[in-house]
Amino acid sequence: MLIHLNEVLSCEEKTVVKNVDLEMNSFDSGLGSFPFLEKEPAALTITNLGEDKLKITGSVRLTAAIPCDRCLEEVSTPLELVISKEVDMKQTAEGRIKDLDETDFVIGYNLDVDKLVYGEILVNWPMKTLCREDCKGLCPVCGKDLNKGDCDCDTTYRDPRFESLRALFNDDEEV
User: pLDDT class for 153, splitting at 50, 70, 90?
Assistant: First the structure.
């Protein structure tokens, strides 16, 4: 959803408070697509700081369905995002790129709320998601979920890099 910034930019120290519904229904990235189970409107406050500078603050609460990193079971993961950005409206798109300013959520005099929230999700995405702390994961041989019971697979793994050392201690060989 786009918010027109003309109203805020018209007067110094003007503040606009908006609750904005998000149009995106999932977080799509190189990691995959993660649907939102719950999403609340973004509560944003946009303040004109003067000299064509804006301060954007706010918060968003989302719940995403993320697979467990060990067993791939879907985990309902709450994301509470706190937004705090300063935008220099005098800067051109080329100037922002040169300064490594990542304000791609401002297009002309419009604020793209979905892009703003997407960037915040990207920064706050959990490094590891587990269905529970003692998750046993999947069997590396048959793929059974070990949280639901053991399997009869031989999971003994021998690192092939140590085979020559193992041969030194093998009792079956003659010296």
Answer: confident
Give the pLDDT score at 90.
76
Q: CA 116, 119, 123, 129 torsion: positive or negative? A: positive
**Pairing label, strands 74-88, 53-67:** antiparallel
Beta 74-88 vs 110-112: how paired, if at all?
unpaired
pTM: 0.79
Q: In the structure encoding, which two tokens stand for residue 132, read together?
A: 């529970």
Per-residue pLDDT reduced to its tens digit, 104-128? 788 888 899 999 999 999 999 999 9
Task: Name beta bridge partners: 85.
Answer: 56
Compute the half-sphere exposure of residue 133: CA atoms within 13 Å on the CB side of its CA: 0
The candidate with the shortest Cα–Cα distance to 79, out of 133, 30, 24, is 24
Contact 156, 139 (CB under 8 A): no
Other residues' Cβ atoms within 10 Å of the Cβ of residue 55:
15
Rounded Cα distance between 26 and 121, Å, is 11
Q: What are the helix (H) ranges across 34-128?
A: 93-98, 113-124
